[in-house]
Design goal:
Structural class: mainly alpha
Largest sheet: 2 strands, antiparallel
Helix content: over 70%
Radius of gyration: 24 Å
Distance between the termini: 47 Å
CATH superfamily of one domain: Cytochrome c oxidase-like, subunit I domain
Mean pLDDT: 89
CATH topology of one domain: Cytochrome C Oxidase, Chain A
CATH class of one domain: Mainly Alpha
Number of helices: 22
Length: 576
């Protein structure tokens, strides 16, 4: 089971190489990289094969690498979650053990938040944002490449404990005690929040590697955000002003602004934690700022981070949903204003994670008020999506099924979040499965569903082929069912007061935990169906000859990326 992540990484890296071979028609010909330097076009050639992917600065190539990398991380982190749910099938410790269980939910949380969601959205933005704003490339193509290539070593550092353990066990019969240093590097068990004093007291050297990896990923993420902002501001084509900028670009612009303010502070906190662990400083000890200082710094990053993950999903929903509702997006300006409002308010809610820490009641009340207030712009988006569908000509394609499911799960996650914003309710539910259910209705609801919807919606552009649409619809419905079963049951478990983060629990909760695990297995099955469909269709799916695969010209929604795709198909036909 634990070999699944590395093996899947090798499989998907092979797929990436296959994409390069397939895009060149199996030939060793070169292609232009589309770089843009100092206001004039430069044309260079890209080598064939692995060297192309290692040296490319083309925004579409980098976008594909981000997406493949994020998919690898998602499958690896998802396998952690499946192992956690397998342990929780029984009330007693039966499968992995407490230490392994603690390591699994630590690496699951970190992998999914840092290496799945943000990189996938960065990949989508890299590929499509220059096309949507009629730019030649990202503003800084080489910085774009650097931002991506910081992520793979960061993931290796974060997950080094598992990697070194596997290497040591494989080579132990030959090298024996020489491998003891590798065995000393164990998977971290700090939880993804890395609360002090636990994260300071643990002697496991992997905790230091994890902190360095997270800092490295933060640098890459910040570089990518700067590039997106500069690209949107300076590289827009003629006729594209702020009033005509598409909704996905607006959400990526806002998300990138949040990243620039949030991630450097997290990087500073990680450095301080490293110094406390290794150099005897007292940033987070009782002699210095204390453990509560870490929580303030972490959550000042952590709650804007929720919207860093969420806002691009709303942009994709706002972009895709009208296409299959047969209507233009209702209240475009209000959705833009609500996006900007969420971006501003997101920096005023962090201490609602700390209601149980003894914070001054007056301060708690102010954070409760802002947390409730941030639900208003979120509700604006929801009602605009619903109004867009009202009396529309709905086409229940796989992308549409997923965005409708995402809106539904977002409503559940949002309403449960409003409850948690209330101090008395939070005091009762903090540290229970209720919080896990609320959070995952957002992460595995609208966020994951928007990603999968985008993969279906833009698949013809990415691959020039079409997938099995019937299988895609079945997969979409199964994903919605799995998410609803899994996290609704978690809300019930939390309502009954079951604490999270324990491998063992009272016997009376066993049936509900088994239902939750069944829902998680349904999610795993749906993800497998999605992966098989898209990979197999890339080989054998019908070749797209007409760019208007979704009939968007009928409703005057044949937007810039599809117009670009139509021109590309015409050029390919002329070359052939």
């Amino acid at each position: 089971m634990r070999l699944f992540g590395p093996l899947m990484a090798l499989v998907l890296v092979g797929i990436l190489a296959g994409i390069g071979w397939w895009k060149t028609g199996g030939q060793g010909r070169t292609r232009t990289d589309g770089g843009h330097v100092s206001g004039y076009q430069t044309e260079a050639t890209k080598p064939y094969g692995w060297l192309r992917w290692l040296t490319t600065v083309d925004h579409r190539d980098i976008g594909i690498m981000y997406i493949v990398f994020g998919t690898v991380a998602a499958l690896w982190g998802g396998m952690d979650a499946m192992m956690v749910r397998t342990e929780l099938l029984t009330a007693s410790e039966t499968v992995w053990g407490n230490e392994t269980y603690n390591a699994l939910f630590t690496t699951h949380g970190i992998t999914m938040i840092f290496f799945f969601v943000v990189p996938v959205f960065a990949g989508i933005a890299n590929y499509f944002l220059p096309i949507l704003i009629d730019a030649d490339d990202m503003a800084f193509p080489r910085v774009n490449a650097i931002a991506f290539w910081l992520l793979p070593p960061a993931l290796v550092l974060v997950r080094a404990g598992l990697i070194t353990e596997l290497i040591a066990k494989i080579l132990a019969p030959v090298l024996g005690s020489l491998l003891d240093p590798l065995l000393a590097v164990r998977p971290p068990t700090t939880s993804w929040t890395m609360y002090t004093p636990l994260s300071i007291a643990q002697v496991n050297p992997e905790v230091d590697l994890m902190l360095l990896g997270l800092h490295l990923s933060g640098i890459g993420t910040t570089l990518g955000a700067i590039n997106i902002i500069v690209t949107i501001i300076t590289e827009r084509g003629d006729g594209i002003d702020w009033a005509t900028l598409d909704i996905f670009s607006w959400t990526m612009l806002t998300q990138s602004g949040l990243i620039i303010f949030a991630f450097p502070l997290l990087g500073s906190a990680l450095i301080m934690l490293l110094m406390d662990r290794n150099f005897g400083t007292t940033f987070f000890t009782l002699d210095g700022g204390g453990p509560i200082l870490w929580q303030h710094l972490f959550w000042f990053w952590g709650h804007p981070e929720v919207y860093i993950l969420f806002l691009p999903a709303t942009g994709l929903t706002s972009l895709i949903l009208p296409k299959f509702a047969g209507r233009k997006l209702f209240g475009f300006k209000f959705i833009v204003y609500s996006t900007l409002a969420i971006g501003v308010l997101s920096f005023g809610v962090w201490a609602h994670h700390m209601f149980t820490t003894g914070v001054d009641p007056r301060i708690r009340a102010s954070f409760m008020a802002v947390t409730i207030a941030i639900a208003i712009p979120s509700a604006v988006k929801t009602f605009n999506w619903m109004t867009t569908m009202w009396q529309g000509a709905i086409k229940l394609t796989a992308p549409m099924i997923l965005v409708i499911g995402g809106v539904g799960t977002f409503i559940i996650g949002g309403v449960t979040g409003v409850f948690l914003a209330s101090i008395p309710v939070d005091m009762a539910f903090q540290g229970t499965y209720y919080v896990v259910g609320h959070f995952h209705f957002i992460i595995m609801g609208i966020i994951a569903m928007a990603m999968v919807a985008a993969s279906y919606y833009w698949y013809p552009i990415l691959t020039r082929r079409m997938y099995d649409q019937r299988l895609a619809r079945v997969q979409s419905v199964l994903l919605i069912i799995g998410v609803t079963v899994t996290f609704t049951t978690m809300l019930v478990l939390g309502y009954f007061g079951l604490p999270r983060r324990y491998a063992e629990y009272p016997q009376q909760f066993e049936l509900l935990q088994q239902i939750t695990t069944l829902g998680a297995y349904l999610i795993m099955l749906s993800v497998g169906m999605w992966l098989v469909n898209l990979v197999q269709s890339m080989r054998t799916g019908p070749i797209v000859m007409d760019a208007d695969v979704w009939g968007l010209k009928e409703t005057d929604q044949f937007t810039r990326e599809w117009q670009w795709f139509e021109r590309t198909l015409d050029e390919d036909r002329r070359i052939d």
